[in-house]
């Protein structure tokens, strides 16, 4: 976790743009349920470089998404938190796995790696639910059914996505490392 070089800054910008594209255009939305691989670029940065790069890309990508989807509102900064927190959890978790297990890559300890991704997904779902509740109270559209009615489905969707990403991240990171990233 050092200074961000020009190369890394450009990579962060590209991954923030990729996050935005995945969030806006390659996401399945069914009511309040979202199925997306948008967190993939954030998690790749978390594994490759750590918390700084993943945080910047998540905040930037989600800010652009919020701005172009709903405009600048009172709760816009709150909506940046879930993807940022996911990236931070995975980045620090990967650092911990590497240090404690003395492995080069976190997926060399598959149980710990998948548990980390699932934990990050659960925290992200809880954060999104909390922010949805707060947003609904502030802007006057609160409904218990809207905010909490599909929580279990969203939780399992998030966990399923985390498992899928657990299989996607290793080959992508290996390819990026071979490419000199």
Overview of this structure, please?
The chain is globular. The relative contact order is 0.13. The protein has helices at residues 6-25, 40-48, 51-70, 76-101, 110-139, 144-148, 151-178, and strands at residues 27-30, 33-36. With 181 residues, it is mostly helical. 76% of the residues lie in helices and 4% in strands. The chain starts with 5 loop residues before the first helix and ends with a helix. A two-stranded antiparallel ribbon has the order 1-2. The longest helix is centred in the last third of the chain and has 30 residues, at 110-139. The mean pLDDT is 94. It is built from 7 helices and 2 strands, in the order αββαααααα.
Q: Oligomer, anyone?
A: single chain
**Helix and strand pattern:** HEEHHHHHH
Let me know the number of strands. Answer: 2
Overall, the morphology is globular
Strand order of the largest sheet: 1-2
> What's the total helix number?
7
| Distance between the amino and carboxyl termini | 15 Å
Task: Specify the helix fraction band.
Answer: over 70%
């Amino acid at each position: 976790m050092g200074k961000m070089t020009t190369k890394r800054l450009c990579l962060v910008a590209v991954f923030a743009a990729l996050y935005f594209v995945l969030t806006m255009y390659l996401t399945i939305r069914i009511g309040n349920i979202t199925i997306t691989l948008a967190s993939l670029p954030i998690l790749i940065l978390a594994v490759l470089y750590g918390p700084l790069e993943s945080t910047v890309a998540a905040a930037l990508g989600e800010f652009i998404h919020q701005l172009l989807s709903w405009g600048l509102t009172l709760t816009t900064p709150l909506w940046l938190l879930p993807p940022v927190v996911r990236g931070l959890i995975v980045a620090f978790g990967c650092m911990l796995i590497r240090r404690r297990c003395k492995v080069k890559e976190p997926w060399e300890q598959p149980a710990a790696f998948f548990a980390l991704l699932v934990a990050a997904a659960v925290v992200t779902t809880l954060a999104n639910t909390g922010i949805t509740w707060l947003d609904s109270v502030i802007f006057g559209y609160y409904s218990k059914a809207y905010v909490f009615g599909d929580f279990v489905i969203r939780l399992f969707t998030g966990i399923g996505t985390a498992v899928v990403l657990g299989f996607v991240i290793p080959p992508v990171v290996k390819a990026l490392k071979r490419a000199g990233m």
